[in-house]
Amino acid sequence: MIAMENPNAGHRKRLRERFKKTRLEGFHDYEIVELLLAYAIPRRDVKPLAKTLISRFKGLRGVLDASVEELVSVKGMGENAAVLVGLVKEMAGEYLKEKVMKRDVIRSAGDVLNYLNVALSGEKVEKFLAIYLNSKNEVLGIETLHEGTINQTFVYPRKIIERAFSHNARAIILVHNHPSGDPTPSTADRRLTEELLAAARALDIIVHDHIIIGKNSHVSGRELGWLGEGSRI
């Protein structure tokens, strides 16, 4: 049997060659998605689908933040392609997490925020994380301690402190996201910070910050004066 030639092979090869030479420099958002989809949808022209995804989810970031269920709801997107897109987002998060481990948060603050933005900005539910640090402010571990509505009832100071002891941590950075995309802190966020700060201070553990992540920005409790001068890195 004679194998049918893939009519899109030439275009895909040109995209691959461009990527090999310049990485993603000069690529349109839809071309990045198109190149990715080519590995999950081997014989179909995926440019129209890539453009549809960029339009539907309002950009590359929205495509990567979309759930598998949301992606497969788009005509032409199978489960394999949706899982591949989701895998790229998760791999990026793991890469950035590994990049900040055992690094001084003063010198790598940008890396820490890059990781948090990738890990949390597209989440549909609230997540509460703790970044545990040693006496040199190097990252020892990053843990998700709660998912769902965040308040004093669900974020137990005891759990945060217990995990700090397990890491032999000297300090903590608290982090949670606002799924609405607006990082503006609420009164409940302030109360939660004060409760966790009191619990940590009682055991001589420093809380350096409580960072709230939105879609395109973040808010620092330390910069708002919630933690006092003694909390500064």
Any key phrases for this structure?
DNA polymerase, domain 1, elongated, Cytidine Deaminase, domain 2, single chain, 45% helix, 9 helices, alpha+beta, 233 residues
Description:
It contains 9 helices and 5 strands. It is elongated. The model has no long low-confidence stretch (mean pLDDT 88). Strand 1 and strand 2 (139-147) form a beta hairpin. The chain has helices at residues 9-22, 29-37, 47-56, 60-65, 68-72, 79-100, 109-120, 157-167, 187-202, and strands spanning 127-133, 139-147, 171-177, 206-213, 218-220. A 5-stranded mixed sheet has the order 2-1-3-4-5. The protein has 233 residues and is an alpha+beta fold. It folds into 2 domains: 9-93, DNA polymerase, domain 1 (Orthogonal Bundle), CATH 1.10.150; 101-231, Cytidine Deaminase, domain 2. Helix 8 (157-167) crosses helix 9. The longest helix has 22 residues, at 79-100. It is 45% helix and 15% strand.
Parts with pLDDT < 50 across at least 5 consecutive residues: none
Number of helices: 9
Shape: elongated
In terms of quaternary structure, the protein is: single chain
Please provide a brief summary of the model.
The chain is α+β, with helices and mostly antiparallel strands and 233 residues long.
What topology emerges from the helices and strands here?
Layout (H helix, E strand, L loop, with lengths): L8 H14 L6 H9 L9 H10 L3 H6 L2 H5 L6 H22 L8 H12 L6 E7 L5 E9 L9 H11 L3 E7 L9 H16 L3 E8 L4 E3 L13
